[in-house]
Amino acid sequence: xxxxxxxxxxxxxxxxxxxxxxxxxxxxxxxxxxxxxxxxxxxxxxxxxxxxxxxxxxxxxxxxxxxxxxxxxxxxxxxxxxxxxxxxxxxxxxxxxxxxxxxxxxxxxxxxxxxxxxxxxxxxxxxxxxxxxxxxxxxxxxxxxxxxxxxxxxxxxxxxxxxxxxxxxxxxxxxxxxxxxxxxxxxxxxxxxxxxxxxx
Length: 200
Description:
InterPro entries: CHP03086, DinB/YfiT-like, Maleyloyr_isom, MDMPI_metal-binding. This is TIGR03086 family protein. It comes from Nonomuraea diastatica. By secondary structure, the chain is mainly α. The chain has 2 domains: 2-143, Four Helix Bundle (Hemerythrin (Met), subunit A); 150-195, no CATH class. Helix content is 54%, strand content 4%. Strands 1-2-3 form a 3-stranded mixed beta sheet. Strand 2 (108-110) and strand 3 form a beta hairpin. The longest helix has 26 residues, at 2-27. The chain is globular.
């Protein structure tokens, strides 16, 4: 049983690692001038999206470091003049280091609920990868989610995202053609238009 749990943890961490590497690639396109642009997340500027990704990375950091995540914890303020993309790259590197160092699948307390480490890693991978796509599109870049990873994330999203998550956490599911790539099905399932274009 322990072997199965640790294999699940290894698979979750590997997926999170791939998601972080993909998202870091998207951050290379961020410039100070782009921070006020709109994003595929309706009503969100790129700056707000980066702040949200920062919160997600900090939560993943807490989960790995202390096995506990405070849902309403106050984040330490960022330096006003700092490049948010560079800060996020640093945070992502720290998160990856902590998760790859985990040796056992121990539960994580999130708002009083006990959640398995592989589940936290998988949900984190969905969050980070899809927001990596959001960032790239807001910057006018085409940076597709790798097909194999998109397929894995879609399978997981269909398990973890429920009708109760809409419309607060995710917009209504969009419709794409059946033959569309896995990325488009993933984005549409999470309420995004796969054909969204930045208004530069």
